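wait is this the right file?? whatever heres the structure
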């Protein structure tokens, strides 16, 4: 008999999901505006400060905060609509926005953050456009998803803590107003958690050193530099929940669903931009030997159809996952992570097929497709990576079905 798979609510292909709290035309307009500057930011690896000024003016930095603090009360479906739309214009901006949204969603769940601090962080996004990220990755530890204690240490002092350590891949650091630091206490049995450093008049004066080391081939405008904390003071009321390391082992289904959806939404947006450029290229290119545009060639129509199939799969998966979360029924973490894995692979494959169709023009720096290709490859590096996702899903299936499959 077939295995009984855990229920996962699907969303029909029609637009039956609730309308976003933001105007789709607004998102498309911002994406088009950001796209004009995207190539320049990519070439210079410069941070798009002006994009975040525009997002703040549009009220989008407080999208997922409740109206009680001036936010829009948006859910995961709303965040996906914004992130996916913005990514079609400038994906590094969308990536910074993902991390900001994930943390703001976490602020309003449970008691992980002191209530006055939570309200201050949320209201600062409304009034000042203040961005936040949690800095977790370290040179020796790598990503915390693979286990191990952070080397960054917080030691108790009167009135608070002093933090020292180094973080890498600190996305958005040029513009962050709040720096969450994943660290451990200086105890015989250390506690692990997040200490929140508010950005003052100058990071250097606070003991925070930013080393501009980000020089990757993709997502070059994300400002994901190295940050060193030199005995930085954090008051007692700026500390999130602290637990023994083992207390962080169990994944939070809701948090995993938010991260899986929004990270995937960025790269799905990149793939859709690549598809859009390809369609324009096929219509515009008219080889003299053909006497018509490439859009009339059945072989190329079929190839484009294959890309459409990949993107449709992504659309259904992401909408289904975000709708499940917004209905307060997130799937098991393994399902959310499998969607992340599948959407990322589909996005990479879609852009690769576009390159194969276009040949040399697609690889020219005069066209955006080669930039889309570099950007979409970054989908593979966001933790947890595919090896962990697939191994975890396999173990879950074996545990769920036990020996029932043996015949």
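ok assuming it is, sequence goes like this
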């Amino acid at each position: 008999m077939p295995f009984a798979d855990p229920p996962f609510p699907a969303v029909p292909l029609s637009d039956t999901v609730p309308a976003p709290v933001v105007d789709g035309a607004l998102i498309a307009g911002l994406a088009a505006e950001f796209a004009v500057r995207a190539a320049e930011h990519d070439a210079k690896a410069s941070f798009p400060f002006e994009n975040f000024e525009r997002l703040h003016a549009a009220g989008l930095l407080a999208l997922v905060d409740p109206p009680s603090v001036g936010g829009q009360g948006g859910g995961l479906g709303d965040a996906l609509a914004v992130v996916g739309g913005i990514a079609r214009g400038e994906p590094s901006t969308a990536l910074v926005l993902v991390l900001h949204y994930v943390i703001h969603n976490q602020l309003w769940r449970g008691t992980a953050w002191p209530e006055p601090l939570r309200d201050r962080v949320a209201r600062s996004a409304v009034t000042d456009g203040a961005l936040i990220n949690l800095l977790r990755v370290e040179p020796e530890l790598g990503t915390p998803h693979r286990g191990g204690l952070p080397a960054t240490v917080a030691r108790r002092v009167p009135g608070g803590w002093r933090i020292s350590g180094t973080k890498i891949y600190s996305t958005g650091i040029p513009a962050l107003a709040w720096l969450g630091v994943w660290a451990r206490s200086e105890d015989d049995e250390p506690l692990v958690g997040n200490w929140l450093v508010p950005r003052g008049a100058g990071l250097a004066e606070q003991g925070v050193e930013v080393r501009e080391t980000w020089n990757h081939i993709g997502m070059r405008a994300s400002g994901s530099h190295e940050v060193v904390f030199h005995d930085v003071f954090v008051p007692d009321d700026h500390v999130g929940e602290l637990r023994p390391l083992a207390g962080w082992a169990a994944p939070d289904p809701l948090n995993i669903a938010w991260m899986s959806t929004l990270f995937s939404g960025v790269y799905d947006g990149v793939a859709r931009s690549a598809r859009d450029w390809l369609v324009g290229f096929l219509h515009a290119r008219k080889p003299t030997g053909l006497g018509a545009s490439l859009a009339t060639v059945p072989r190329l129509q079929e190839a484009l159809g294959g890309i459409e199939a990949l993107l449709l799969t992504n659309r259904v998966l992401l909408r289904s996952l975000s709708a499940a979360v917004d209905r307060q029924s997130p799937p098991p973490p393994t399902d959310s992570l499998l969607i992340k894995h599948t959407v990322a692979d589909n996005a990479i494959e879609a852009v690769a097929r576009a390159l194969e169709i276009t040949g040399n023009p697609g690889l020219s720096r005069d066209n955006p497709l080669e930039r889309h290709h570099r950007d979409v490859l970054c989908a593979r590096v966001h933790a947890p990576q595919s090896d962990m996702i697939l191994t975890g899903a396999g173990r879950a299936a074996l545990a769920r079905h036990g020996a029932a499959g043996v015949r």
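Confidence is low (pLDDT under 50) at residues 1-6, 12-16. so i think its the right one actually
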